[in-house]
Amino acid sequence: MTVRDPHRTVEAVWRIESARVIAGLARMVHDVGLAEELAQDALVLALEQWPVSGVPDNPGAWLMLTAKHRAVDQIRRRANYERKLEQVGRDMEVRQDSAEAELDDALDDHIGDDLLRLLFTACHPVLSTEGRLALTLRLLGGLTTEEIARAFLVPEPTVAQRIVRAKRTLTEKRVPIEMPAPAELPERLSSVLEVIYLIFNEGYSATAGGDWMRPSLCEEALRLGRVLAGLVPGEAEAHGLVALMEIQASRTVARTDRRTGEPVLLLDQDRSAWDRLLIRRGLAALERAEALGTLGPYGLQAAIAACHARATSAGDTDWERMAALYLVLAHVAPSPVVELNRAVAVGMAYGPERGLEIVDGLAAERLLRDYPQLPAVRGDLLAKLGRAGEAREEFERAARLTRNDRERHLFLTRAATLGS
Q: Which part of the chain is the DUF6596 domain (predicted)?
């Protein structure tokens, strides 16, 4: 197959196939860093050969086969070849051709299992949160160090150090590239879900910089979430997270003004612009989560998001149900942020005075001390109560706290509308 721009084709194929290739190699060489190096060797060969010979009919299989042969060569060259043979289940007398046959079988089978092992390894709790985020995006998202740095607005060397440190930690701690034991699964699954949702949230509401959203991160998190839900179909929270992300992602287009690019708050959004396909998919994932048992934190948040998705207008939203769901969520996964969100729902359902009572009770929370949404929510409730001066001060405080330029402009605009 020939194409006009083989380099772009190589990049596209790498983005799609890299996780599968690295996952298969990691199971064989038992080293995430080495697996990535071998896969990238195959990428380099593709960049050298495809522009000359043309893109193969099955480029993903070409990368897999090339990486597999690189793995065989690597094992043959290494001084500890016998130990590698033991790791693939052979005794020390197995011939090199037998080792290659073993690699052939292992790399071609159990692709889903390999991806799941790689995902759980990249999100291992032994790693820092930053390390898990960077390594997951690198290994399973196929993102370059430059792309990850740009997405999180940090220097490229910082991201590179996080990835190197994460891989080194996995090696030093001798973290096996395998599925966790049944007793460890809840904690490990929680770490995987957290990483995927952190990626999504950074894309949905960027914490810093000039962009209100970074849709590419949302798309990557959704892809990872869908893969995970397909690999662990019996885990309700995996479906709950997918439901939450699908429904939230459905509002992407409506979240910014098409003319100015400024943020549009949820209650002011044009709901006809919401993506109905994503909403249907989200509601279907929520139904699957509910069918599997009691909803966990992600499922409950998806149920809350569904209240918005099902309402034809802000006035039609079932705020009382939303307030009740937040109360359950506060019991299942208590946090000051959940309480702050509950205050919004309570304020809409039962009046701003009730919401303000909850917000004022959070004033001493250390975790919310520099959280711009606390004064923003308080300012909104005060404005509804006609306390314009106090509300303006709260919005100005929120503007000082946020590191996102678009959000700062939104808060200052809200303050300006309240007069001097």
A: 188-289
